[in-house]
Specification:
Blueprint (H helix, E strand, L loop, with lengths): L15 E3 L2 E5 L5 H8 L2 H6 L9 H6 L7 E7 L5 E11 L4 E8 L8 H16 L4 E7 L3 H9 L3 E11 L5 E10 L2
Parallel strand pairs: 5-6
Antiparallel strand pairs: 1-2, 2-3, 3-4, 4-5, 6-8, 7-8
Length: 181
């Protein structure tokens, strides 16, 4: 466990086994697949692919090197992307990080987000001395709430009007947390 003020190194990008698929680092070779998802209304609503006017190539390029985050695609044996998961907002002083995920349209309803969150959380706890992984999602995003709970993240409360999503509105968000086993 980290001590207050202690920093730690983020591991180099690497592949992680998940239940039924792999988590692998981003690559610019994935641009064509990712652009298909970036036009999906639910992906645009909840995932950060096009936030701030960035195009998908810029979004991927920001995630190639693990500088302040760890980001993976969830892929099958044929390298088809099911979605993505990131660990970010490393708070060294308080031994906390945040986790977020999104799921491609063709993979929704198959438990991808929960399994990706479990694998990314296990990797995080094994490699980084944090006490807690937090997860926020819009209250309206019921699928994300189910995935968080299924991944072992406990519901901790609701933040009112806490995050501006791409629709321009401030949304209430649920807070979930997972503590180091």
């Amino acid at each position: 466990m980290s001590e207050p003020g202690q920093s730690f190194d983020i591991p180099q990008p690497q592949t992680v086994e998940a239940e039924g698929f792999l988590l692998r680092p981003y690559s610019m070779d994935d641009l064509e697949q990712a652009e298909k998802f970036a036009d999906d209304p639910l992906t645009v609503q909840w995932a950060p692919m096009r936030r701030g006017g960035n195009d998908v190539a810029h979004w991927i390029s920001q995630r190639l090197n693990w500088d302040g985050h760890m980001t993976w695609w969830a892929v099958d044996d044929h390298d088809q992307i099911f979605g993505g998961v990131s660990v970010f907002q490393f708070d060294f002083h308080n031994a906390n990080v945040m986790l977020g995920y999104w799921v491609a349209p063709h993979a929704r309803g198959r438990g991808v987000a929960a399994r990706a969150a479990k694998a990314a959380s296990a990797f995080t706890f094994a490699n980084i001395p944090v006490a807690r992984i937090g997860l926020f999602h819009a209250v309206m995003n019921e699928a994300s709430c189910k995935a968080a709970t299924k991944a072992g993240f406990e519901y901790e409360g609701t933040l009112r009007k806490s995050w501006r999503y791409p629709d321009g509105e401030l949304h209430d968000e649920h807070v979930h947390g997972l503590l180091r086993p």
